[in-house]
Specification:
14 helices, 3% strand, mainly alpha, 3 domains, Arc Repressor Mutant, subunit A, 274 residues, Endonuclease III, domain 1, two-stranded antiparallel ribbon
């Protein structure tokens, strides 16, 4: 897409800011001066709705009030607090990130997306969002609600819109004086659009329908982690019983081992200790 005209750029910015002034949402992780809080919230918000994140975020911060407390916690304790959010690897990645920040950066979260993207579990867009929200830096990133806004606003008659077509528009329209709230505004308008119209992001090249949770590998993975949090160690037979003798248990525990979420010793599985 060609560059936006000054008039179209001004009109788009005015509309987004006006919407945000009237309809902006309030969350505990917004407009905070603690980068650790932002990192926690951004990793929690990956693939998880805000209404599910809100109570878990609050409890997590109460349990691990700063990056040092999280780094010193056991993986078992971290995953225990993570229960209910799904995708337990995110909890492990957050734990690892805290440990790396303590070991390599004297407990200070880097404010450079090129550094953050080297952290396991933090991709380009999450690195950009952390820097925008924690440090008010005009980074360029995209997520589902931002994608929705730009497809609805600039690609009304197009399908299979690739992010490479959207990113230049994100870069052109960003408010360099207040990127933090500008992204809040875009996200809030995207949420509104999804309520008012058939989800415009379905016209994205990257749109994928999430598989059903009930009966999925994700459900079994979650059940295994939850069981090993509740009890110190379990055999594969015990885990199989907990998972209703599902034949996939044997394969899934091996995957969890490879991902270093669990360990196997003396014929028992347990949450990884290191």
């Amino acid at each position: 897409m060609k560059n936006l005209s000054p008039e179209k750029l001004a009109s788009f910015r005015y509309f987004i800011w006006a919407f945000y002034e009237k309809e902006g949402r309030i969350f505990e992780w917004r407009n905070v001066d603690n980068p650790y809080y932002v990192m926690v919230s951004e990793i929690m918000l990956q693939q998880t709705q805000t209404y599910r994140v809100e109570p878990k975020y609050r409890a997590f911060i109460e349990e691990f009030p700063d990056i040092e407390a999280l780094a010193q916690a056991s993986l078992r304790d971290v995953l225990g607090m993570w229960q209910g959010l799904g995708y337990n690897r995110r909890g492990k990645f957050l734990h690892q990130a805290a440990q790396r920040v303590m070991q390599e950066y004297n407990g200070i979260l880097p404010n450079d997306p090129e550094v953050l993207v080297t952290f396991t579990g933090i991709g380009k867009n999450t690195a950009g969002s952390i820097c925008a929200f924690a440090f008010n830096k005009p980074t360029v990133f995209i997520e589902t609600n931002i994608r929705t806004v730009f497809i609805h606003s600039f690609f009304k008659d197009q399908d299979a819109v690739h992010d490479s077509m959207i990113m230049p528009l994100v870069e052109q329209t960003i408010d360099h004086n207040n990127p933090r709230e500008w992204y809040y505004a875009l996200m809030d308008y995207g949420v509104y659009l999804k309520k008012m119209f058939p989800n415009p992001s379905r016209r994205s090249k990257h749109h994928a329908v999430q598989s059903k949770f009930e009966g999925s590998d994700r459900q079994i993975r979650g059940a295994i982690i939850r069981a090993l949090i509740e009890r110190p160690a379990l055999s594969e037979k015990e885990l199989s019983i907990i998972c209703n003798h599902d034949a996939r248990v044997s394969t899934i525990v091996k995957q969890l081992e490879e991902e270093q979420l669990i360990e196997y010793k003396n014929e028992l599985f347990f949450i990884r200790t290191i």
